[in-house]
Amino acid sequence: MVKRSRFDWQRSHVIVTGGSQGIGAAVARAARARGAAVSVIARGEEQLLATAEPIGAAWACAGTALPGRFLDVPIDEFESQMRLNYLGAVHAARAVLPGMVSRGRGHLVLTSSTAGVVGVVGYSGYGPTKAAVHQLAHCLRYEVEPAGVTVAVLYPPDTDTPGFAAENTRKPPETAAVSGAIDPLTRVLVRAGGIAEPILRPILARTIRRARESG
Fold first, then answer.
1. Catalytic site includes residue 171
2. Is 126 part of the annotated catalytic residue set?
């Protein structure tokens, strides 16, 4: 994570992808309140990165979740989630990292999910895309941190956003049940680096079974 004492907001330009609503919009407002110059990118406006002034930080928040049971989810939804959630982060990182590396400073923040660390029923299309973001961040650390660029990856819990509201309308009952149990485990899973999943699997299995039986 970026230490507050080392981050000069007033001299930084923060670029937020997926910043038109939800977590991205909140990040953009918070950065602006701290004195940073902020650029917000939504779908269809990635070209703004090419004309942006020197960038001090970039936060990739763009993403979507289309939950459903594996056999019920159309293949195009698997592809669209991979394009937006993972390849969107790849494109954002490739756009900003060359300038950061050449200047020898900068901060890149990628947004993963608890579903990218532990398997969650109903998220077979979403979870693997966030697992890819998790691995991307760790790979990039080895490549760019020696050049003075820091890379962080976040695992936000369920958040009250328009995207989450839309996601809830299509969750299978067992997914909704597991989601409530997952959020308190986010910090534990991240600290354990996924090692805790075998321990949690029986707990999640019981939650899923009860949801199916009650349905």
1. no
2. yes
Q: Which of 126, 155, 171, 179 is catalytic?
A: 126
Place of tokens 């080895």: 142
Q: Which of 205, 167, 177, 181 is nearest to 67 (CA)?
A: 167
Average pLDDT of the residues of the chain: 75
- pLDDT tier, 1 (very low <50, low <70, confident <90, very high otherwise): very low
Q: What domains appear along the chain, each with residue ranges and CATH number? A: 4-214 (3.40.50.720)
Q: From the candidates 39, 130, 171, 179, which is the catalytic residue?
A: 130
- pTM of the complete model: 0.68
Q: Is 130 among the catalytic positions?
A: yes
Report yes or no: 62 and 123 within 8 Å, Cβ to Cβ.
no
